[in-house]
Design brief:
Elements: H1 4-7, H2 10-16, E1 19-29, E2 34-43, E3 47-51, E4 61-66, E5 70-80, E6 83-88, H3 110-115
Antiparallel strand pairs: 1-2, 1-4, 2-3, 3-6, 4-5, 5-6
Length: about 130
């Protein structure tokens, strides 16, 4: 049986692995400690494409904080007007970025943890 992915060029297969989404993230530059908000348009295990009004150089080291994942190191792979590509230093699971907020321990504020008491789930506490 002929596998269509095996006959595809690497650039076509790379496009198939990307997940389109709209997600805000924080981008920072370790060299200067500058940081700012960007909008991620697509994400894969190895990198992402973001919209940002930045002037950056190809190859520059960056770190990006994705919700439910945390800080990821990488470098600028390409730049065009208003957009940039980032290649991660280590692969991630892109599906983790779609997890709802509050699903991990460090994302639930203390005051909400008190309300979500597993010992007495129906008992609200007065603060």
């Amino acid at each position: 049986m002929n596998d269509p992915l095996k006959s595809e060029t690497p650039s076509v297969k790379r496009g198939l692995d990307r997940d389109s989404l709209l997600l805000k993230a924080v981008l920072r530059f370790p060299r200067t400690k500058d940081e700012g908000e960007v909008r991620i348009r697509n994400l894969s295990a190895g990198g992402l494409m973001a919209e940002a009004p930045l002037r950056v150089a190809r190859g520059e080291a960056v770190e990006i904080r994705l919700r439910s994942i945390g800080w990821i190191s990488g470098h600028v792979a390409w730049v065009t007007e208003g957009r940039l590509g980032i290649a991660f230093d280590h692969p991630i699971n892109p599906k983790d970025a779609r997890k709802p907020l509050g699903t991990t321990e460090h994302e639930v504020p203390t005051y909400l943890k008190k309300l979500n008491n597993p010992v007495a789930p129906n008992k609200l506490r007065r603060l």
